[in-house]
Amino acid sequence: MLPRLGANYPIEIEVISKPKAEYQTDEYFELDLPAAPAVMVGDEIVVEGANVSAGEVEAVIRRHLGVAEPAAPKKGFFSRLFGG
């Protein structure tokens, strides 16, 4: 997900991966970073401690860059009928 978004938008992507124990140290909490897994765009925490869809991350990136968000796709008959 992140490489595709980095190719589509002028943003810098930094992936931090550590053993779980390192995220639970006092030193990590002092950094005032979110609990892993997490996604941040700028100083905004998109999600913390859970998974997130590519669409949600892309919407936050677009908002951060001042780019209009894409229009929501129109729902077809079956989507409206079955609540999809």
Characterize the structure shown.
By secondary structure, the protein is α+β, with helices and mostly antiparallel strands. It is built from four helices and two strands. The chain has one domain (2-82). The radius of gyration is 16 Å and the shape is extended. Helices cover 36% and strands 11% of the residues. Strands 1-2 form a two-stranded antiparallel sheet.
Order of helices and strands: HHEEHH
Radius of gyration: 16 Å
Question: How many distinct helices?
Answer: 4
Which structural category fits the helices and strands?
Answer: alpha+beta
Q: Would you identify the regions where 5 or more consecutive residues have pLDDT less than 50?
A: none
Helical residues, percent: 25-40%
Mean pLDDT: 82
Strand content: 5-15%
* Count of spatially separate domains: 1
Tell me, briefly, the overall form: extended
Count the beta strands. 2
The description of the largest β-sheet is: 2 strands, antiparallel
First-to-last CA distance: 23 Å
The side-by-side strand order for the widest beta sheet comes to: 1-2
